[in-house]
Hints:
Elements: E1 7-10, H1 20-34, E2 39-44, H2 56-66, E3 73-76, H3 81-93, E4 97-100, H4 107-110, E5 129-132, E6 139-144, E7 149-154, E8 162-164, H5 172-182, E9 187-191, H6 198-208, E10 214-218, H7 238-243, H8 248-256, H9 271-277, H10 292-305, H11 308-318, H12 325-335, H13 344-353, H14 367-380, H15 386-399, H16 404-416, H17 424-431, H18 433-446
Parallel strand pairs: 1-2, 2-3, 9-10
Antiparallel strand pairs: 4-5, 5-8, 6-7
Helix pairs in contact: 1-9, 5-6, 8-10, 11-12, 14-15, 14-16, 14-18
This protein binds glutamic acid.
Residues 11-13, 45, 176, 190-191, 194 line the site of glutamic acid.
Amino acid sequence: MTEKKVRTRFAPSPTGSMHIGNLRTAFYAYALSKHEGGDFILRIEDTDKKREVEGGVQEIKNILTIFGINWDEYYLQSERLDLYKVAAEKLVKDGHAFYCQCEAKNAKQEGFSSQLRDSCRDKNFTSGAIKLKVPENEIIKFRDFVLGEEIEWKTEIVFDATLLKSDKFPTYHLAVVVDDHATSVSHVLRGHDWLPSTPIHLLVYKYLDFKIPQIGHLTDILDPDGGKLSKRKGSTSVTGLLEEGYLPEALFNFVILAGWAPKDNRELFSLEDFVNVFDASGFQKSNPIFNRDKLDWFNGQYIRKTNDSELTTRILKFYKEKYPEDLIEKIVPLIKDRITRLSDFDTLAGFFFKESEVDKNLLGDNFDKHLHAALETLLTIKDFNNSQMNDKLLETVKNNNFKTGDFFMDLRIAITGKKMTPPINESLVILGKEETLKRIKQVLKSTN
Ligand code: GLU
C-alpha cells in the first residue's frame, strides 16, 4: 500500500434498515476510490450494542451486493476493542482525556456547565468511562472537500465527548478516528448529520498525532414537502424501495444524481460508467430533493432496457415465484413498455392468472350484442393466433356495424375487468381459447 493510494470506507451502523442517504454515501465513497484504482473498505460500526438490530450486518452486506458494490477489506468494530482501549488510555496518559464516573452521557445532559465541561475532568479518577478533555480558547478547523469550504469551531462549543464507555466499547468519536487511521483511509465521506462531530474527531486526531484524512460532508436528500426525507409517500429505505418494485440499476442511477452532477447532461449511468467519470468536483452544494417522478422515470427506462428473459426472471423473483415462468415470459413483451415498477405487473397482468370481477357498470350500452358476436367469432377460430384473431374480430365489427372502440372495450372489460390493459388481441392469444370463451360466457350469463 503506497501512501498516496485513495482509500475510502463506508461505515454504517447496523441499527436499522438502510436509508437511501446511506446508500448514496456508499456509492460516492466507492466511486471516489475506484476511479483512482484505490480501495474501498466496508466497516461495520457496531459499538452501540443497545441499538443494534438483529440481521443488520447481513442486510448491509446484502444490499451492497445487490448493487454490485464489492469491498476490498472488511472490519467489524466490536472485534477491535483493544485498539480503541489503547488509544483512549494513551489520551488519558497524555492529559487529553480523563476518567469519568458520573452516569451522564455528557456534561450538557447533566447541566453541569454552560461551557459543556464535564464535572469529572479535573478529578483525576483512575477508572470509569474515558472522556475527551476539550481545550479552552482554541479554534478547530478543516477544509471540507465536498462543501469546498473551510469550517471552524471555537472549542467553547465542543463538549467533553465520551470516547470509551465504561462497558469498554468505544463511542463513534473514538472508533471512527482510530479506524480511519489504522486502515489508512485517505478520504472520509459522510452525511451532513455528522458535521457537528467533526471538531471532536479533529482534536482526537491531533492528540493521537494522526494524519488527518480529507473529510467531506454530503448534502441531505430532502423531502419534496421540505425538511428531512420522510416516509409519507412511500419508502425511503433501500429494502422498502426494492420491495416497491424499483430495479437496483434505476435506484442506483437516481441516487447518484441526487447530490452529484456530471460535467455533461448525461443521465443514464451504470456503476461502471459512474466510476469512470466520477469527479469529486461534481458534488452539489445545495440539498437535492427526493423526486419520486424522476425515480419512476429512471425505473421505466431501465425496465425497457432490460431484455425480455432477464425481465421475466426479475418478475418471477419479485413475486417470489407466485406466477409460472412460461406465462410471465409470454406476457413480458406486452407489458414492458407499460409498467413503471415491477409491482405494476400485478395490476396490469393479474387477469392472466386470476379471473377478475367484472363491474357491469363499466360495460357499454351494446355490450350484449358485442359479446355475443365476439363469442360467435372466436368459437370459429381454430388456431388462436394473433393475426387471425385481429382480422376476424375486425370483420365482425364491420359486418355488424359496430363501433370498433366500443366493441373492443366491452371485450376487454369482459376478459380483464379493466379498461386499461395490455393489447387485447395478444392477451387473448396468451389466455387461450378455452379461458377466453369461458370468461365471455360468464359475463353474458351473469348479466342476463
Ligand atoms: N456509523 C456512521 C453512520 O452510520 C458513520 C459516519 C461516518 O462515516 O463517519 O453513518
